[in-house]
Amino acid sequence: MTVEQNVLQQHSQKHQQTLLNQLREVTGTTDVQLLQQALQVSNGDLVEAVAFLTEKNAKVPQQDEATYYQTAQITNDRYISVGSQADTNVIDLTGDDKDDLQRAIALSLEESNRAFRETGITDEEQAISRVLEASIAENKASLKRTHTEVWSDSPNPHERKRMENCPVGLKNVGNTCWFSAVIQSLFNLLEFQRLVLHYSPPARMQDLPRNQKEHRNLPFMQELRHLFSLLVGSKRKYVDPSGAVEILKDAFKSSESQQQDVSEFTHKLLDWLEDAFQIKAEEDREGEKPKNPMVELFYGRFLAVGVLEGKKFENTEMFGQYPLQVNGFKDLHECLEAAMIEGEIESLHSAENSAKSGQEHWFTELPPVLTFELSRFEFNQALGRPEKIHNKLEFPSMLYMDRYMDRNREITRIKREEIRRLKEHLTVLQQRLERYLSYGSGPKRFPLADVLQYAMEFASSKPVCTSPVEDIDTTAPPGGTIAQLPPPASAGEQPDACVSAEGSGSGLQASQQQQQRVSIHKPFTQSRVPPDLPMHPAPRHITEEELRVLESCLHRWRSEVENDTRDLQASISRIHRTIELMYSDKSMMQVPYRLHAVLVHEGQANAGHYWAYIYDRHHQRWMKYNDIAVTKSSWEELVRDSFGGYRNASAYCLMYIDDKKPFLIQEEFDKETGQMLSGLDKLPPDLKVFVEADNKLFEREMEEWDALQARKLQQEKLALAAAAAAAAAASVAVQPMSTEPCSPDNTAPSAAPQHDPEYMEQQSPSGDSKHLQEDTERAISKAAAEHDEKSPEALLNTAMKVEYTRLLRLAQEDTPPERDYRLQHVIVFFIHNEAPKKIVERTLLMQFADRNLGFDERCKSIMKVARAKLELIKPDEVNMEEYEMWHQDYRIFRETSVFLLIGLELFMKKSFVEALMYLIYAYQYNKELLAKGPYRGHDEELIAHYRRECLLKLNEYAAALFETGEEAKVNTGLSIMNDLVVPCLPLLLVDEMEEKDMVAVEDMRNRWCSYLGQEMEPNLQEKLTDFLPKLLDCSTEIKSFHEPPKLPSYSTLELFERFGRVMTSLTMGRTPADGR
Predict the structure, then answer these.
(1) pLDDT digit string (tens) for 846-884?
(2) Which of 609, 935, 936, 981 pairs with 228 at a CA distance of 20 to 30 A?
(3) 609 in active site
(4) Among 913, 795, 922, 924, which residue's Cα sits nearest to residue 859?
(5) Is 601 a catalytic residue?
(6) Among candidates 381, 550, 519, which has minimal Cα distance to 457?
(7) How do residues 101-113 score in pLDDT, each as one tens digit?
(8) What span, in angstroms and rounded, lies between the C-alpha atoms of 1052 and 713?
(9) Active-site residue, selected from the candidate residues 226, 601, 771, 825
(10) 226, 267, 361, 609: which one is catalytic?
(11) H helical segments located in 735-752
């Protein structure tokens, strides 16, 4: 066959397949032979074919045997329809008018055919176009979004720098998480990666007919090569895939948008790659039939063996991604078994010519990369919208495909028959066991062994001789405190004789009633039942012989029932174990497939987020690829997110690879040195140049950023120096004139402290300065009292020791959070965190060198000595950079305390909107402090608790506003979510070990996802659909954020007291230990 004939044949097959898909979509018929028959009868005319099928369906009931025959959906898995556009010519289909139905079908087919004839593009491709255009439009619109949007780039390029040997992420350019998940899964197939990177366009491109597909596929391949090369060698933490997405968008023309589906995109992506590689394969072939590497990698074949109306048939068909139904199955093997058998198959194995219809599928050739589509979306006819199936479905990390291979057909049939027989036996045993465990004929049923035990307990209870109502005094007032006692039995009476309610004992009973009081049983206040009240009902009349016989029978029956129950349970367990081990022999474990990637979808049918778990064979671990965030993961996390049934997240696509073909994930090695290739060494020359150029641009961006920050820092230093100089000049101007001459040497010490922390020295004798001044003067007075004749230097040394002793005692106290002495003095903070001795000494010396000390001669002389000592300290004695760093940490500690103080005060006032930013920054600053030492910050759990609670309160408030349905309130609620809550979610997700934060985020998402199943106005539905992707974005990348709120200035004493009051309020009220 010539190349032209081969191309024509492929085109004819695809055109026929397109017609079949259109017929299936319009008529709902899934019988391929029936569809083909309709096309043959109508000579390819779709209108006549539809008329043929609708007439046939009107004559044949839906449940006829013809409907049992459903051909392999796998053949058509590459041409799944994703829906049709709304037409302006609306036809009412709610009535019974068949002409309307025929007109609607004809109009739909005419529209589809006209579009296909004009553009050569199917409805499926146009649907994908709508999604891609929406993604590009959203990407462009994102440039105009506020800085609180979670997918904006950080302005600091160093935060976007790739860590060494860390995989590169993909930026979400607007609802393109599906693109990232699929591309990353394919990129990490190293054989596929090599094929793309080393793809070269045909040499004779100018001689080839440049049709529309070639115009689309070849540029797309070039963009994909560029994208893959950046994923290999970029210095960026994540790269922008807009180039490839732009090509996809430009290939189609449409204006509508919808949520993109991973499987549909994968179908089309592989189609385009197949076409691109086919051109290259045909150019490179030398006489033999060209091999397409995409087909070799992703496509397999199966044999369809069946019976249709008594006639046997066998067809070999090709498949790519294999679709599996999820609903009604518990694991992947059950899904596969159901997909491999369609209809009634008894007639397949018998020689009789039966009229039953059915078919089996047997794989004749499996692809190296085996992909399963898990169908988790179904259309709800009653509600008129798609819904997601959240059922749990388990899948193994190693899948053995032997039982589905054609070469094992006979042995598999034997095992299936054995399993069928065992399951029938199992059903009988389970029904019998159920009769034992749920015994009775009424609505309430109990285990039979328990029923017999209860009967035995009843029979063995002490007999009573009165009716259960006869011993109750109905004349006593409600809640009375006096109870009547029965008369004592006479000597002649038998213990079991009945006592009459009326008779001679009544007089004695009346007299005793006045003399004795008996405590009344109070069921809600007493913990035990009075001894005179029977514990259980009991038989009134039973003889010893009757009791003996009854107990003997009940004991024997209960023993028999328990033995029968144990035997049934043991038999059921053995059968389950036998079924589980049915395919465990070595002969059925020769086709192993290892799980390579799991594509996960979180959300509902019409909104959600995709990410991927991919196995890193080199490091033997799972990795989570969530747009720009690539993090280490585990099998346990994968199970939690992928099996379903636990929350709104579940696997949507499974990618397995042949475990006997290591080349799929094998690294390349240098032929000369034998060393493994990595980074830019893996790239061909043209891509190496491309990546190096991009890396240089990124390096230049970092250099420009560093230069900009250096200029800003220099400007800040100059501004601070100018402000300090102005403050010093103002301070000198207001000080009283000294009676001593001012020498040039005296000017230096006065200028020395100008750069020291503001909480160590204030310009006015109030606030912090006054409080610090009083402490200093108190230490000086105490030192002077001990040594009255000492020199100023000796007094200074003694006063410093006195003050340090006081501060050390405060630091060593075991105080609750409401008395945090670190807020009172910087040296307490330093002692807690083991600051160097020189840092502490200089800080203490600064306290005694304060110009605001009292003006008596003793204090003035000590201040001058302290300033002189400061001047004499050499640079090599105290590291000033370290000194500044310690004081900077204390400044941050005070700021953190103020953030926390204000945030908690606002939270307790229920001002959650205002409180949030204070709590957010309190947590972030505190976390940075705690990273340097456990005593540099506050209780992290406490701040995390109130940060989490504040977000939950805001989420509830916003949801309540949304539920009102009023336009203004709905907009306010969504604004709160978009501006406050959503940007904060990455802060809760960044540490996945914090389970409470993870649960809180899940609760918030579930609250909004629950609205998807409710009826609401179209404008609300539109706003919800637009908002949910932002809420469900699982990216942990923290981008640009709100500026921190401005903090008021508190004196040390005021901050200490207010902080103590807030902590006392929390201690008296609810604490984080209470949980959420």
Answers:
(1) 888 876 666 577 787 888 888 888 888 877 788 888 888
(2) 609
(3) yes
(4) 795
(5) yes
(6) 550
(7) 455 455 555 555 5
(8) 29
(9) 601
(10) 609
(11) 744-751
